[in-house]
Design brief:
mainly alpha
């Protein structure tokens, strides 16, 4: 797999950039930025991904590590959605039950 990524640098760069953008938006982005600042951030991110591409071609497992990070973030997001759904169900069940009279 590592050899295939080294042989296809454009695919590797696109994967690295996509993973980086997802990680940035999921973890580091706090709010909406003005459009010019947002463009600058993504341009700098694209330039930084070139450095990661060099590491990937030089046989470091950058794409594999980033895919594990993204998979863990997706699992966390799914767990949060599951917990929110389960807690909402419990709250509606508690609201439906009559209260005991003292």
């Amino acid at each position: 797999m590592q050899q295939w990524f080294s042989d296809h640098p454009i695919v590797s760069y696109v994967l690295i950039l996509a993973f980086t953008i997802y990680i940035f938006n999921a973890v580091f982005k706090m709010g909406k930025l003005p459009i010019l600042k947002e463009i600058i951030v993504y341009i700098i991110m694209a330039i930084g991904c070139l450095v990661l591409l060099i590491f990937q071609i030089d046989k470091l497992p950058i794409i594999q590590c980033m895919s594990v990070a993204v998979a863990m973030m997706i699992m966390l997001r799914l767990r949060q959605l599951y917990d929110k759904r389960r807690n909402r169900g419990r709250a509606s069940d508690a609201a439906e039950q009559p209260k005991a009279v003292k």
